[in-house]
Amino acid sequence: MSDLPQENLWHSLLKTAALMSSATTGLALTGYACSEIRLVFVRNSAVQDVLSGLLATLPMLLMLLAVRRMPWRWSRQLWRIPVRLIGPALKTSPLTAILAVAFMAGFSEELLFRGFLESWISSWHWLAGLIVPNLLFGLLHFVTPAYAICAFFAGLYFSCLQRFSSEISLLSLMTTHAFYDLVALLWIAHEVRACDSPEDR
User: Is residue 201 a part of any domain in this protein?
Assistant: First the structure.
């Protein structure tokens, strides 16, 4: 992606996100169509579920802040790798593009992993429904082993929220996922722009 002209980087990022989101959403909807799993999107009201999702983002953001301050090599890599891979694209991205990427990831991944796969696999065994979709979620985010492990635990956090909290719906999880991604993407964009500022040269 970094070999493209600077002005085309964010276009490429947006197209890649849209392609992945379309594929993930398509898989989820095919799964719903071919099974008896019923999609439960809202649990309370849409506004209440979105607010619950925003509140559920706080522990993840605190964990992100903690990881950024850890001195270990693996924790530094967790940040540096996304910065290296998508930082150049985010640096030139308008806010609308970053919002779109965060929304597409939150919507499509939660629809597939927590919406369909967890419900489907839980019909066989509840523990498998917690573990297997999140192993797949970790593999989808395999950049390094540490990154995949962190993605697994993030997915497990989403699954536990959905299973054990009466305030959390699929819409809540989509909100949590999208808002977390939005904050992380904006942080990466800010850091890359700050490194390229004249004061740092």
Answer: no
Q: Has residue 27 got a pLDDT over 70? A: yes
Contact 172, 161 (CB under 8 A): yes
Q: What are phi and psi of 51, to 5 degrees?
A: -65, -40
In a domain, 12, yes or no: yes
Residue 49 falls within a domain, yes or no? yes
CA 34 to each of CA 28, 38, 48, 165: distance values in angstroms, whole numbers, following the listed order: 10, 11, 31, 28
- Domain residues for the domain of 49 are 6-196
Number of folded domains in the chain?
A: 1
- Rounded mean pLDDT of 17-41? 94
**What is the DSSP secondary structure assignment for residue 6, as one 8-state letter?**
G
Sign of CA dihedral 141, 127, 50, 32: positive
Calpha distance 162→168 (Å, rounded): 5
Tens digits of per-residue pLDDT, 55-97? 999 999 999 999 888 888 888 888 888 899 899 999 889 999 9
Q: What is the 3-state secondary structure (H, E, C) of 17-32?
A: HHHHHHHHHHHHHHHH
Nearest-angstrom CA–CA distance, 124 and 79: 37
Is 52 within a domain?
A: yes
What are 137-172's pLDDT values in tens digits?
999 999 888 899 999 999 999 999 999 998 899 999
